[in-house]
Amino acid sequence: MPTSSARPSLRGSPSVREYGAVFLLLLASGVAQRLVTGAVAWVSDRTPVLLDPNLVGTVVYTGLALTALAVAYVAVRRLRPSVDPLERDELLAVGGTAAFFLGIAAYRLHGAADLPVFPGYVVSSLLQGGVAMGALALGYARLRGIEVPLSLPDRGARPVLGAAVLAAVLAGLAWVVTLVLTSPWIRDVASVDPVISGFFAARQPSVGSLLLDSALPGVFVGFGTALLYNGAVQGGLRERAGRLDSLAAVTALVGTFQWTRVPIGRLTGVTAPVALTAGAAAVSVVVAALTARAVRALRRSYGVAVTPALAATAGVLAVVGPPAVLAVALSYPASGLAYVGAFTAATAVAAVGYERSRSAWVPAAAFATFLAVANRDVALLLAQFVG
């Protein structure tokens, strides 16, 4: 496992150009996610009406299963390059056979099980994580010459993976418990902060809903989030400013970008999604730069022994402070503030895990776990249990 000592811990401050590139990356990803969500919603509303629902469900679920198989094949090929790849005709034969049997299984399952015709949340999460975040991050990294380590963590780093997952579970549960305690009956979607309203709906959770609305979207978006923020942003800042500055900056960046769109809209009256995303990206980059500068000042001017955990904690503090003030000024709900803190804590865990393991799988597991735990169905299950 590469050690962090291979690079000096003190470097120069990233240039305005570097932070400008990060701003453009955030803006592009945010707009792409909006477009994906809108397009999937449009298709979800119209396709089952225009076509036979069973046919639509069969095609969609077969496509999702084939996508999962393709991703698994690519992952195995990358992780085990010694294994001989399939020839083109073999790929076509295997893919065609798999599509045939998966289509039959999907048709029978769709008719027998209570599944949505078009699982828009799953499709949207797949496109967000895979295209609007993952593909964009890899393209950005390649353009700027940033190495994104996609190999599995070696044996020595596996305890880091376990610790990251455990910490993400605790962060997710902390938000769920806060939500249930502040809204014991999970009363009304309108009373939940807009940042987290997408995670909440008053319905009975089931095994299917846990899989479609929690587990799979968490995996898709979690991996895309890790590639975008840890692989592309943290990796780029690490090359130019060192590991400690990058840890503080990326934690502050992600946490700030998570919550700023709502208060910006309330304070300015702006409702255009692109303008809100641009404003949130700009504020996030400024907060990230100031946080990195503060950590650098602690080391250089005051001689503080800053550890990776302390650098990430500085990023968390930079994020949680402003929402606490806005909670009073703008009646920001306690559940919204709790989610900001929990998500930023998970981001700090992912950033430190990425630094210690040098593998994108560690932050991917942390984000996926947090998103799978901090969701509406877990909150509903807990509310029913305590109620």
Biggest β-sheet, characterized?
none
What ranges have pLDDT less than 50 throughout 5 or more consecutive residues? 1-11, 187-202
Q: What is the count of helical runs?
A: 13
Question: What kind of oligomer do you see?
Answer: single chain
Mean pLDDT: 79
Q: In terms of structural class, how would the helical and strand content be classed?
A: mainly alpha
Could you give a quick summary of the protein structure above?
With 387 residues, the protein is an all-alpha fold. The chain is built from 13 helices and no strands.
Could you walk me through the main structural features you see in this protein, from its secondary elements to its overall organization?
76% of the residues lie in helices and 0% in strands. With 387 residues, the protein is mainly alpha-helical. Helix 7 (243-259) packs antiparallel against helix 9. It is globular and about 65 Å long. Residues 1-11 and 187-202 have low confidence and may be disordered.
